[in-house]
Amino acid sequence: MSTFGTLFRVTTYGESHCASVGAIIDGCPPGMPLTNEDIQPQMTRRRPGQSNLTTPRNEADAVQIQSGVEAGVTLGTPIGLLVRNKDQRPHDYTETDHYPRPSHADWTYLLKYGLKASSGGGRSSARETIGRVAAGTIAERYLKLAYGVEIVAFVSSVGKVHMPESSTDSDLLSEDYLKLLSTITREKVDENTIRCPHAETAQAMEERIMAAKARNDSIGGTVTCVIRRSPVGLGEPVFDKLEAKLAHAMLSIPATKGFEIGSGFKGTEVPGSEHNDAFVKKADGSLGTKTNRSGGIQGGITNGEDIYFKIAFKSPATISQEQATAKYDGESGVLATRGRHDPCVVPRAVPIVEAMAALVIMDAALIQNARQTAASLLPPLETPLPPSMSLPPKKVEEKMVKEIVQEQQA
Amino acid sequence: MSTFGTLFRVTTYGESHCASVGAIIDGCPPGMPLTNEDIQPQMTRRRPGQSNLTTPRNEADAVQIQSGVEAGVTLGTPIGLLVRNKDQRPHDYTETDHYPRPSHADWTYLLKYGLKASSGGGRSSARETIGRVAAGTIAERYLKLAYGVEIVAFVSSVGKVHMPESSTDSDLLSEDYLKLLSTITREKVDENTIRCPHAETAQAMEERIMAAKARNDSIGGTVTCVIRRSPVGLGEPVFDKLEAKLAHAMLSIPATKGFEIGSGFKGTEVPGSEHNDAFVKKADGSLGTKTNRSGGIQGGITNGEDIYFKIAFKSPATISQEQATAKYDGESGVLATRGRHDPCVVPRAVPIVEAMAALVIMDAALIQNARQTAASLLPPLETPLPPSMSLPPKKVEEKMVKEIVQEQQA
Amino acid sequence: MSTFGTLFRVTTYGESHCASVGAIIDGCPPGMPLTNEDIQPQMTRRRPGQSNLTTPRNEADAVQIQSGVEAGVTLGTPIGLLVRNKDQRPHDYTETDHYPRPSHADWTYLLKYGLKASSGGGRSSARETIGRVAAGTIAERYLKLAYGVEIVAFVSSVGKVHMPESSTDSDLLSEDYLKLLSTITREKVDENTIRCPHAETAQAMEERIMAAKARNDSIGGTVTCVIRRSPVGLGEPVFDKLEAKLAHAMLSIPATKGFEIGSGFKGTEVPGSEHNDAFVKKADGSLGTKTNRSGGIQGGITNGEDIYFKIAFKSPATISQEQATAKYDGESGVLATRGRHDPCVVPRAVPIVEAMAALVIMDAALIQNARQTAASLLPPLETPLPPSMSLPPKKVEEKMVKEIVQEQQA
Amino acid sequence: MSTFGTLFRVTTYGESHCASVGAIIDGCPPGMPLTNEDIQPQMTRRRPGQSNLTTPRNEADAVQIQSGVEAGVTLGTPIGLLVRNKDQRPHDYTETDHYPRPSHADWTYLLKYGLKASSGGGRSSARETIGRVAAGTIAERYLKLAYGVEIVAFVSSVGKVHMPESSTDSDLLSEDYLKLLSTITREKVDENTIRCPHAETAQAMEERIMAAKARNDSIGGTVTCVIRRSPVGLGEPVFDKLEAKLAHAMLSIPATKGFEIGSGFKGTEVPGSEHNDAFVKKADGSLGTKTNRSGGIQGGITNGEDIYFKIAFKSPATISQEQATAKYDGESGVLATRGRHDPCVVPRAVPIVEAMAALVIMDAALIQNARQTAASLLPPLETPLPPSMSLPPKKVEEKMVKEIVQEQQA
């Protein structure tokens, strides 16, 4: 359906040529400062045509909060918001409409609904992602204010051009790469239009995209995202493990084909003895892990280390090249889609990935808040827990579970 | 939470040393023949120690249906089922319990809940998957009876030993591999204990596992799954695209680190012109795709082609090697886990992947049934739809949308 | 939360002084004709000030569909809709704002959220019901087109002025009253401004309201609603029995204090021997009940008889009389709310009740569609069911379960 | 479906003649002492045949916790529990099985599912309520330990025999009755087998029931329930107002026909000037209401006053009297149900009502915990809120919103 989340619940509407696209965000905590201007930057980062325009189109995709905010502060009630569509005319029927576009949703929408929007695959339009980005930005704002959470995504590959991630002698991510994950900022990411923070690679990626464009072709890529300073304890065993919710969120973004967290697919090739994240006492006395192959999640629950993951985006299906295919009626033919198309979408996918990540963390944090507060209201146990169910009885450092949890909430 | 699905809803309970593990399956269609014996085979395939035991432990993990079935037929009411735990004693506290096990859930359960089961990460136990397999087997039985759906998973890699998937000159899956996907059976998969249908690779995989075992180490791998004859039109835009639900389901299985569908991560490197799945008229007159890089899903909706995907399982965290790590109190030390451990879990993961796949398809099919039936009850439109929203007006073959859909339901 | 329903899912937003109020309706079947004009009549019936204005304010509360509809036909995707608020200025702070209004939500919103909208109880505003009515009207339109469902509500009491429901010698509803339920239309209901179909009673009700108005006081009442031609088999045991969903829906309407279905509270006083609804063969050969004390629902499931229920609305809390109460700071004082207030809301509640009834039936019908279609796709049982689980083996009339169900869907 | 709740989620299974009935409770806070013995007393109160047996059947309906508890303490993971059915034989087919029992669910289950359990309406069996009572008892235990919540239900009428609730000159509840609500205990309720705390009325009720029994007839009644010391701020606008959730919960209990909260149906007859609950400063400095016609809820949100409501239970459908009715095939006939039947169920309904009340409050408290904790983590606003959105600027007593909320959680 068009709803995501349990306690922080986002519902979106809208397709390409309707009056507006929008969203209702239900469950935003009350008392948070929020204006249209707080949402707009990520909306603008999501917009098409950014890299080719020197003048920013400030007027475009302007978000309008409808409800749930008064005097610039959230009320705790649903936040309605919308963005007007400029082109609200239904799509004109042309010769190309005899063809379901290959690897598009024209045909599957027709199969599912028995009819389709004139523009094709209805809600599979990129315009649908506007509501996600707006909602995710609100979630992110809360997480930043309450916990100092930082979410940064960037382009990690375009076609076969990959950022350097591992050293030559290992399948695991290099120290340098993990350091980049722990420090990367959106400002750094936006230094080039590709949104790849490795300048050399960004240059090669740009060339790869230009080559695709020159051939009226397209090319895919991957986006990597890191979530820093996430509260611990997020994720709900067993079906709503945090990585499961992240995978769900990411694979719901149009054109995605894969997701991996932590060491991912490469990690399957590394023996357990190398792959395990040994524990270590941190500078502040708390327990952490020496390495972070787990990607900040163990047993489906966040452990306080950086959460990082990668998403695969296929090459865009819309290309201006002629394609041999068949019409709806099965007759063979050649389809040539007119107009200018984006040869590579991964740079624009960056804020969408960040938005979906924020929605997952926000919802999980609210659910964990409920449990943690509930547990804290119980009177102390009369019989202490056996040591196997609690912390070992001796030599317990001050900086342990309770303190970590309390710090998260301070 | 411990519930999965909307209309076909599975809720599970149980950890390692409690009285039983079990599940409630709500939403199973009435009128389906079902006995304990229909569920048992997949339960048995999931059991540990299969390959080393010549005598099958028939008595073990025996599933007991509690409700929802009478005279061997489902009533449409919730099916309760349980499997007794043999060892119900709480875990004895030993020296090793001073240590949170590296890359296990001991520490994160403690962070999340403030206490933990004596056996460690509670619900992160492999025993938790029993309920999933039982529930998935019921879903699969329905899908087989109603639609002829076939779900087959197999081991596609162990460590660096991979089944041959592509030819040397392409990043895309080879014709041979796609043919294997379209024909592979569980019988074929079970011909060797590794559950890899490529005999040569299976041999190399077994050697790889033995090597890990010899070093008291462990090794990961991947499982590939194909769903054939899925109904068309499944998957709910925008947040519950079918691939998003599959990713959610798969990443909820313990020890998973990645998911890719269709061409997956490799597909991001192939230009759109090669990657697009052109349409073609099939032998029966219906519309299909010439290739299937999409993996049977476009715009989040099934198109009737084979659905196939791959899941990454990390190397098991439990190894008998000594590990330098820290205790709960932060003190450094060396942990040596005693006992015999499974050096590689992917063969046993095969029925779990199949079960979760069945749960996703089943739930999506019920939701699509609701919509399709509802749409079919509307009177015909007085004004016909414009051609851009429907099928083109001329030369429409008989074998079109409506017929395909009806056939699915015949 | 602000979402209602499982497969036909309505999410609303908006309070008194924000930019707009609106809703997203997710799960409307595709292929249904729908325009703003189809929704407007119930919106207009809901509007305040109808009875005092000779000129209808056609421009007011104009609903604007934003998405999910093209060429006047639903696409199956979410329908966004909104109604602009005319007065979008935040409420000016005055002396009366020192007081939480008695029996209003000012105080509880402050307790719940820690702050409140300047207009008082935020979403407890009557304006919130606009989204419900719009959504319910769409549901009702579908139910009418697909099944011929008829939903009619009316005012059954104002203060102590009640419509005649029972004869003097019985606590059960009279034949006359049940006949009225089976024939009443909205046109008939709207013949007077009170919306009570019993002319004499309507006159007395109007006098009762005028008396309240003259004293700057207010008065409550009840609304009765009947749903005719509902599909059979609706309602989900055990927690989502149809009457439970109806009660939930009705008690979510502002100012409601009670709900009763069928014979209701009075029925508790009648012995089982009189209260039971005996079965009888109907003219068309199908099985029906001779009486209908159950109100069309048995065991939580609709049986095809008329569904009827009554809802209690308390006397409006806003009155112009001076009220001795306390300020937020606990200081005693006298609150005099200025302005003109509606002394009785039940006439305007009529379309809101109808809307919520439609939402419940629509969602239940979609869920039952899913099950029924799924069951119909199973192959016939090899061993026939024992007679205790099916229809008796002999003398089964043609017009039985299957036919009734099929007829519902024809 | 068979699931109730969002964060405290109960799923039940089981019908009359299956192996067991049971439930999974997901979301119970960790760290709460819990044993089978804590659950058993309410199970025993629910059991049939209590009043006629001098020897308590201790062995009957013995609940067995399966999971989620170790060392007598909840782990925070799902609690599986079950109660064995003694009679697991399928129902023998007899002459009476040709008849759908009037006002039972036999016929509607057949309509809904196309088949039915041999015992009749499957899940509509009273045995289904076992899972609810077990789950509700766990919720209640938490609420008692964490907040001191007290939930007490009692029988308020049997047939036309009603407890005195109002004085003769008013439709509103009397001071005496409200005092009874604020002090009544389960011990007091259980002083007689009718579970009516007004001894004289209890005597008359018993006679009424004996009269029904003598005629092989049955009689209905009402149960009233009070929830004391509920946390403030519970209930989710707009569709999940607390009274809406309570109504849903109560109308999901078998045989219920009505629900009213606070002043209820009678309150609709009282003018607003009398009905409004004026505010008053309480002894402890906090704000309360002078009267409590609202029943502890305003705008769908709890205000800290007693929550009280009444539920209508129809006369049991199963009677030994001969009933003229029709067979499944439409043929007229006379049905005589053999065996001994309970002529009045309201005394046994008392613990079921208490259980459902606890489930509603528990779930609402967890959801409110999530919001409140989230709001508390936000940094203070830079610009203070306008007075219309907050507490008035002057003369604010110390004992205000924040303190009340904190106290609830202290």
Automatic annotation (TrEMBL), chains A, B, C, D:
Residues 37-57 are annotated as: Disordered. The keyword Amino-acid biosynthesis applies. Gene3D superfamilies: Chorismate synthase AroC. One of its GO terms (cellular component) is cytosol. Its EC number is 4.2.3.5. Its cofactor is FMNH2. One of its GO terms (biological process) is chorismate biosynthetic process. Reduced FMN (FMNH(2)). GO terms for molecular function: chorismate synthase activity; FMN binding. PANTHER family: CHORISMATE SYNTHASE. Belongs to the chorismate synthase family. This is Chorismate synthase. It comes from Rhodotorula toruloides (Yeast). The lineage of its organism: Eukaryota, Fungi, Dikarya, Basidiomycota, Pucciniomycotina. The gene is FGENESH: predicted gene_5.249.
